[in-house]
Amino acid sequence: MEETGALIRKRRATISTGKCVPLKQVNGRSEVDESVNRRSDSGNIVTKRNLSDLPSTTSKERKKRINVPSDRQSCHRLQESLLSSASGYRNYRGVLNWCVVMLVLSNARLFLENLLKYGILVDPIQVVSLFIKDPYNMPAACLVIVGGASALGVYTVLFLKLYSYKDVNKWCREMSHAKARSLARSLSCSSIPRSRESGQDYQVSYPGNVTLRDLYYFVFAPTLCYELNFPRSPRIRMSFLLRRLFEMLFFTQLLVGLTQQWMIPIIQSSMKPLEDMDLPMMMERLLRLAVPNHLLWLIFFYWFFHSSLNFIAELLQFGDREFYRDWWNSETITYFWQNWNIPVHKWCLRHFYKPLLKSGVSKWLGQSAVFLASAFFHEYLVSVPLKMLRPWAFMGMMAQLPLAWFVARFLRGNYGNAAVWLSLIIGQPIAVLMYVHDYYVLHYREGSAGGGPE
Length: 454
Prior knowledge:
- By secondary structure, the chain is mainly α.
- It is 64% helix and 2% strand.
- It has a domain at 140-230.
- The chain has 16 helices and four strands.
- Mean pLDDT is 75; it is low at 10-52, 180-187, 189-200 and 447-454.
């Protein structure tokens, strides 16, 4: 009994010696649970961890540890304000929606003002009658210009296609004569034809591609770069085809209606300020023309590059549908011109820019030559239908070179993207007003001056 009592007193004394040590809760268990004695199966007393092994801490450290909140209780962290440039300008979906709403409301006010001032001017029958009676009178002159530009565009596209067809077959013929198995500049000429296997189409090789059927398919395909074996879609999706057809018809009517209702009244009211060289009124007319002109350009882009080219591609089962990239995110002028018209960009890169580099021309000079050729075609497609040679489109394209250098050098990120949008919104109506003014002076002022003495 004495031994048992001594043992109990010894056990109590062992536990009571740690009364000054704070027993904290760790993962739901207190340190008492870690330090209490437990009995073994044999009945002996076994100590898991002695209290003497606990780290010795001063009272100041214990108070500091108790008073410091955990990470879950903290409400501050290192971060920037959302409206500062260091934040990266994220989480702006609401601001984007606000801009869309404000844009719709402001344009709705302008459209309502146009209706109250001019009434309803949309009349397709009137346009056709004016076109037949007096094709050089507004607004029929717009149809003449658009029709002439469309015809010239078709012939220009045909020229670029035939040039690519000639180049690729020339490369294939040269490699065939050299008995090479691969073409360094074009991956489209495979020397070994693939047989018709399950799930695989027959791959044609030179000179098996030189057929009228292959040529006609390339002429109507929505691309400017020729290949012996184009990627093909497995089937024609009728729902997709009908949607694109509906978009083509709808946006065609919308383009004609907005031109009649919105563009032509502003252009007609701009003649007197241009004739009198009234600079403030010219700026006011320019800003008024910028909104409908840019809207028409955006609608035309969607109508042509998305609806029309996808319609043709779906009809011909043409597989490559990359007709444009994310040009709206352009932070440089160069990126915009490389991504808004992919068929033309691929043709210039393949048949114009790379041959220049191969001949020893520098990159900067090659890019300048591409802009020069583009400026020529822009001026050609405008001046010939108008029957007057003016340098405005040519100068506008060549002005892209110093503008591209300035934006790439001094503007970055969102500022560069804003500069690209500003050049698109303001640059086009300037050229439109210049051509309209020269056309008006050439066909109306000279005609009235010549008819007076008679």
